[in-house]
Amino acid sequence: MTALMKSVGVRAMKLLSSAVNFRLNQCGETPIRSLRSFSTLRSPPSKAIVYEQHGSPDSVTRLVNLPPVEVRDNDVCVKMIAAPINPSDINRIEGVYPVRPPVPAIGGYEGVGEVYAVGSKVNALSPGDWVIPSPPSSGTWQTFVVKEESVWHKIDKSCPMEYAATITVNPLTALRMLEDFVSLASAGDSLVQNGATSIVGQCVIQLARLRGISTINIIRDRAGSDEARENLKALGADQVFSESQLNVKNVKSLLGELPEPALGFNCVGGNAASLVLKFLREGGTMVTYGGMSKKPITVSTTSFIFKDLELKGFWLQNWLSLGKVRECREMIDYLLGLARDGKLKYETELVPFDEFPVALDKALGKVGRQPKQVITF
């Protein structure tokens, strides 16, 4: 419970035993417990998505009303504006993510909010400022969040809120992978990736294009793949192949005039990872940052001995834990600038907080492929 005590909802967790939770698909709300007035600065009451045990998010999450909590001298109370539902959020609730808050916990890991009130010793932030938790921090699925000033990063309010709410996890992953593993020339080099329709994949395409780097993109065979191909090309993709198109003896024959890629990104695993490896040139590197297929990566002996390929992994949270707060925030400002200027785009769907169950069903894939679900408060 210690790791949670700095958030609005979790400071109030001691009062949850007296609150009446309700399932999200039921009517009504938890009545707010009456509290006597205090002279100290306190947050407004907050609504939050809470889970008290790990399991399927659509069965273990609850909407609860939480009472006000104290805003201490170094604290900032933030009224949340928007927060996404990421796959890692779902994995945390399921209990399968490597790092997760102890239960009971409030969902959400990134988002954007407006400063509502500040403690007496807070100087860098003022009411009305837009802020994001940086590095990301658990507990963003609630209407008011109270955490120490050091958690919050002030951003430019001119950036659209859907990008401000989602910039820290996926776009930052794309940027770090482009810069951390292989030194690509400013022009004339190429990379290959699977999972190209994901937000990370879309960001890789656009960030690479800004650097003059060509991209070879692999997508799954499914309904709407032709439309997906055109959408990726509109973002700047040089080549887009479905997995079935790559069932040829020599995939490199499909490259045309593009150079053999030195860098590959894998977020799928299984056969899709093998296809990335087939494209890589001698001495190339494949970076794995996800495993959507839940299938292992199989590497041929030839790839290791005769092509001297390297396989590496990337986990954003591990990178953030290396004390790179300042560097992280500088990159976030850079990415937000690109989004503001229309140079970084991806599709999101804004959903009111009261319709959280609908957004969750879409995020869980119950109604087919959907845009990134972003809750608005």
How would you summarize this macromolecular structure in one to three sentences?
The chain contains twelve helices and 17 strands. It is of the alpha/beta class and 377 residues long.
Explain how this protein is built.
The chain is of the alpha/beta class. It is built from 12 helices and 17 strands. Strands 4, 6, 7, 8, 9, 16 and 17 form a 7-stranded mixed sheet that branches. The longest helix has 16 residues. The N terminus is likely disordered.
Task: Please state the structural category.
Answer: alpha/beta
What characterizes the major β-sheet?
A: 7 strands, mixed
Helix content: 25-40%
Radius of gyration: 22 Å
Number of strands: 17
Strand portion: 15-25%
Outline the low-pLDDT stretches: 1-38
Kindly report how far apart the N and C termini lie. Answer: 26 Å
Order of helices and strands: HEEHEEHEEEEEHHEHEHEEHEHEHHEHE
Instruction: Sum up the overall morphology in one term.
Output: elongated
DSSP helical segment count: 12
What's the mean pLDDT score? 89
Topology:
Blueprint: H1 8-11, E1 22-23, E2 46-51, H2 57-60, E3 61-66, E4 75-84, H3 87-94, E5 105-106, E6 112-118, E7 130-133, E8 144-148, E9 152-155, H4 161-166, H5 170-180, E10 190-193, H6 199-210, E11 214-219, H7 225-235, E12 239-242, E13 263-266, H8 270-279, E14 285-288, H9 301-305, E15 310-313, H10 316-320, H11 325-340, E16 348-352, H12 356-363, E17 372-376
Parallel strand pairs: 10-11, 10-13, 11-12, 13-14, 14-15, 16-17
Antiparallel strand pairs: 1-3, 2-3, 2-5, 4-6, 4-8, 4-17, 6-7, 7-9
Helix pairs in contact: 5-6
